[in-house]
Specification:
7-stranded mixed sheet, Jelly Rolls, Lysophospholipase L1, single chain, SGNH_hydro_sf, 6-stranded antiparallel sheet, hydrolase activity, acting on ester bonds, Rossmann fold, signal, alpha/beta, 2 domains
């Protein structure tokens, strides 16, 4: 039986689970220290800022994010409620830890929702703990009064694990961080899992090709606004109502780190003054202006010259780049110090449109490094790649280009 209605009010740390990869029991909500600072301001009629850091499920228009904000504003008409929208489709907590300063913290949120459970599915549990802990520590170092809530979604890949009453690996890892720091967590999908298990909802299907049962999604991942997202919203509202009376307002305490290599030192640097450019580069907003991610990465540098290089000197144990992927992109070569170059494809089966993306190379030795970034052409069979998703391309001309759109450095 799915534990969809089980609520845990324990404030006991579960940090004892931190160094294991055990799957934890599935619970809809765990209160821990609650969200007392946010609700104190809200009940006093003061302006509040709510931030959403996550992936495409959070990004979705008319999804749980829009529905939740609409409900909170209706319930609190005297408050000015400002949204900080920091969701980037197809990205996880590793990119989240790098960009949380720029995309969230500098806007001074009162409440931060963090949603990366599905996009972290393929990450090692230890890495999930490190990246999520980085987000927490960076947020509270900047403002110890900011309340944080971890929220979890699910996909068809997690269904069987949740039906056994267990959280999948990514959520179990996040729960270790939440328990260590007293952060409340809400799994928005357990009610859906219960409905699917009882045959009252379909997890996926094609539009107008299913029976009378409601359809959660078309793809087993992204909920439909009128079904899956509505359930997510109702679960959130129900449990936020319980959190509204929990905990004691005050500054959150940064405990001894759960993971010694947590990503509290991660970050994102704009190009320009932070790097050296060699060869032909130009600034452009042609693939950012008017896009959903424009406010997050308004300007990029572009080149179609394989001899053009970006040279970056940095201190740290990881290196990466935020960039734009789409029909006209190709591959990139990264050379760090005297190591053999790494070639990373910047085109995939989803590259029928331009989108903000990233890559990170971890595991560098501590200390100072020099990285060189260069465009690679002639490597990709774009038609073959797109065929894997049965993409029906009518105009192939945009795909003939092979360029690099560099946006920001990640460390």
């Amino acid at each position: 039986m799915i534990l969809a209605a089980f609520i845990c009010f324990s404030g006991i740390s579960i940090s004892s689970f931190a160094q294991t990869d055990s799957l934890l029991p599935a619970r809809e909500m765990t209160v821990r220290a609650g969200l007392p600072n946010f609700y104190k301001k809200l009940k006093a009629g003061k302006p509040v800022k709510i931030a959403f850091l996550g992936g495409s499920i959070t990004r979705a228009g008319n999804g749980y994010r829009d529905q939740l904000l609409k409900s909170i504003r209706e319930q609190n008409p005297s408050n000015t409620i400002t949204e900080i929208m920091a969701a980037v489709s197809g990205t996880g907590s590793d990119f989240g830890a790098c960009r949380v300063d720029d995309h969230v913290i500098r806007h001074h949120p009162d409440l931060l929702f963090v949603e990366f459970a599905v996009n972290d599915n393929k990450m090692l549990m230890k890495l999930v703990r490190e990246t999520m802990e980085g987000i927490v520590r960076k947020t509270w170092k900047a403002n110890a009064a900011t309340d944080i809530c971890f929220i979890y979604t699910f996909s068809s890949e997690n269904l069987s694990t949740l039906q056994k009453g267990l959280f999948p690996p990514s959520v179990s890892a996040m729960e270790a961080v939440a328990g260590h720091y007293g952060i409340p967590s809400i799994h928005m999908g357990l009610t859906v899992v219960d409905e699917i298990s009882k045959g009252r909802m379909l997890i996926m299907g094609k539009k107008d090709e299913t029976d009378s049962r409601p359809l959660f999604s078309y793809d087993g991942v992204h909920p439909l606004p009128e079904t899956g997202h509505r359930v997510y919203t109702s679960v959130l509202l129900k449990n936020l109502g319980r959190l509204a009376t929990s905990g004691k307002a005050g500054k959150h305490r940064l405990r001894i780190p759960l993971e010694a290599k947590n990503w509290s030192d991660a970050g994102m640097l704009s190009l320009g003054k932070n790097v050296q450019f060699s060869g032909h580069w130009a600034t452009t907003d042609s693939v950012t202006k008017g896009k959903e991610y424009y406010s997050l990465l308004p300007q990029v540098y572009v080149t179609n010259d394989t001899n053009a290089v970006i040279i970056a000197t940095f201190n740290g144990t990881r290196f990466g780049m935020a960039d734009i992927m789409g029909p006209g992109t190709a591959a990139v070569e990264i050379t760090i110090d005297n190591q053999p170059p790494k070639i990373i494809d910047r085109f995939d089966a989803f590259s029928t449109y331009y989108r903000l993306n990233f890559f990170i190379i971890p595991g560098l030795s501590p200390g100072k490094h020099t990285a060189k970034i260069r465009l690679v052409k002639g490597r990709l069979n774009k038609a073959g790649i797109l065929k894997t998703r049965n993409n029906n391309i009518k105009d192939w001309s945009p795909y003939k280009n092979e360029v690099l759109y560099a946006g920001a450095l990640l460390y």
